[in-house]
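Researcher: I'm preparing a figure for a lab meeting and need a structural model of a single chain. I don't have an experimental structure, so a prediction will have to do for now. The sequence is pasted below. Please return the structure as tokens so I can convert it later.
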Amino acid sequence: MAPSSELRKFTNLINLSIGDIIIDSHGHTGILVERRRHIDMIDDDIFVWSIRWNSTILQENPHDVPASSVLEEEGLKLSIVVGLYEWHSVSGETFDLEI
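Model: Understood. Here is the structure written out token by token.
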């Protein structure tokens, strides 16, 4: 596995947009619906994404839900790089790290 500094370098290759689809490791599908600026005491400025998860998840098993409907942008990008989320951009981009 690449060192963490190399992994962070790959996050710059990911340009998230409203309408992008993410799929988590359990197969839950979510759509990025809003990007908001958040003032943080440590990092000063961060961005967070609101995610609308597929409603059929709750119908099938109400206890099997994604961890959060709001994710910090850099954390989401890093999760895509390491393979926790599969990303499909509205512009046709995806990310596949080949080490």
